[in-house]
Amino acid sequence: MDKAFTRVDETFEAIRDSLNQQAINNIARKLAQDLRRAQQARIRSQKAPDGTAWTPRRRRVTRIQERIRFIWNNETRTLKNWHHDTGKYGRTITGWDEDKNNIRTFYRDDIDRFLEIRTRRINQDSTKHVPMFVKLRTARYLKASADASGVTVG
Questions:
Q1: A Pfam family name for this chain (predicted)?
Q2: Are residues 117 and 136 in the same domain?
Q3: Which residues on neighbouring strands pair with residue 67, listed in sequence order?
C-alpha cells in the first residue's frame, strides 16, 4: 500500500515541478475553494466528517403561566405569562397584555376586581427548527487559504 502512495506522490511531484509558481498557486486556490464548499455543504447537511448525522439540538420547552383577567380603569385586561412583583409604589402584576400586544405592568391597588386567575403553568414545545453552526459555514468564519506549500480551510 505504501508503494502505491509513493508512486502517486512521485507523480504529483513531477507534475508540480513542471508547473510555474503562478499555476501552482492557482491550483492550490481552486483546491481550497472546493474544499471550503465541500465543508460548507457538509455543515449545511448537519453531518460529521465520517458521514454520520449530528445529534439534533435539544428540544426547547417554553414555560408559560396561563392567564389572569381583571378589571382595571373600567377596562377588562388579560395577561398571560404573568408574575407578581413589587414596584416603586407597591405590589404589581407584570405579563403579556393580549389586547395591547406588549408587556404591561399593573399596580395591584389599581385593579378593581379579578375575573379569572389560572396559575397552572404550560410547557410548550418550540416549533422552530434551527440548524446548528449556521454562522460557522459562512466565509467569515470558514477561511480558505492556499499557497505553494499547501491548502488550509478552517
A1: Phage_tail_S
A2: no
A3: 80
**138-146 LR contacts (CB < 8 Å, sep 24+):** 139/36, 142/36, 142/39, 142/40, 142/43, 144/32, 144/33, 144/35, 144/36, 145/32, 146/25, 146/28, 146/29, 146/31, 146/32
Residues 134, 118 share a domain: no
Check if the beta carbon of residue 141 is closer than 8 Å to that of residue 147: no
Verdict on whether the full-model pTM lies above 0.90: no
Residues 148/25, Cβ–Cβ less than 8 Å: yes
Average pLDDT, the chain: 86
100 lies in the same domain as 117:
yes
Q: What is the pLDDT of residue 59?
A: 72
Residues 9 and 27 in one domain: yes
Same domain, 50 and 99: no
User: Rounded to whole angstroms, how far apart are CA atoms 118 and 123?
Assistant: 14
**Angular region, 81: left φ>0, alpha ψ -120 to 50, beta rest:** left
Domain that holds residue 109: 61-125
Task: Count Cα neighbours of 53 within 13 Å in the Cβ-side half-sphere.
Answer: 5
- pLDDT for 38 equals 92
Would you state the pLDDT for residue 125? 67
Both 45 and 67 in one domain: the answer is: no
